[in-house]
Specification:
Blueprint (H helix, E strand, L loop, with lengths): L3 E5 L6 H13 L3 E6 L4 E8 L8 E9 L2 E2 L10 E4 L4 H5 L3 H12 L4 E4 L3 H6 L7 E2 L6 H6 L3 E2 L4 E4 L2 E4 L5 H15 L4
Parallel strand pairs: 1-2, 1-6, 2-5, 6-7, 7-11, 8-9
Antiparallel strand pairs: 3-4, 10-11
């Protein structure tokens, strides 16, 4: 039976932050499921930087079907969870089903990969207090408010938690996450 990995996301997630780990983990031999508030075709976005803008811009991205609704997820079936960024975490952090899912991964000390604005979700379950993390740099104050020590670097590993700033840091993020994952939940 393959080792299962869960990706939790929703509309307005950053396309690359969902699809890169989805494909990379499948390439490693893991079975990957995407969960969202409901089973539907999700609409992702593309964030990029353009001259003259003080922040990133947002454009329509790929669409992708959710395999499961959060209410259908049995966290015990999954060895790890991936928390992508984009705008999705801003509203998903209010979902009680998702908060239960994420809390169960931290309670069981299972590997968690978070990127960009994804740490808004793990902060919502009080899982960052006392940890070292990175995130999209504009979230530094949010991370400190959640009790974390913020580091502005490509990837930060704190036990089973692996965090990264944004999609340009994918190689470092997945390299570190796969190191943790292979040790705790090798492909079977």
């Amino acid at each position: 039976m393959p080792t299962n990995i869960l990706i939790v996301t929703g509309d307005a997630a950053e396309s690359l932050e969902v699809l890169y780990p989805y494909q990379r983990l499948r390439e490693e031999g893991y079975e990957v499921h995407i969960a969202a508030p409901t089973r539907k075709k999700l609409r992702f976005v593309v964030h990029d930087f353009e001259d003259g803008f003080d922040t990133y811009t947002e454009k329509p991205g790929y669409t992708w079907p959710a395999d499961l609704a959060f209410s259908e997820v049995d966290p015990g079936r999954y060895a790890a969870v991936v928390v992508p960024g984009g705008r999705a975490p801003e509203y998903l952090r209010n979902d009680p089903e998702l908060r239960k899912i994420l809390k169960s991964f931290f309670d069981a000390d299972k590997p968690v990969a978070q990127i960009c604005h994804g740490p808004l979700l793990t902060a919502a379950v009080d899982a960052l207090s006392g940890r070292h993390v990175t995130a999209y740099p504009a979230l530094e104050i949010d991370m400190q408010t959640a009790g974390a020590t913020f580091q502005d670097t490509e990837a930060v590993v704190d036990g089973s938690l692996v965090s990264s700033r944004a999609w340009p840091d994918h190689p470092a993020w997945m390299r570190e996450f796969l190191t943790v994952l292979r040790a705790k939940a090798p492909v079977t």
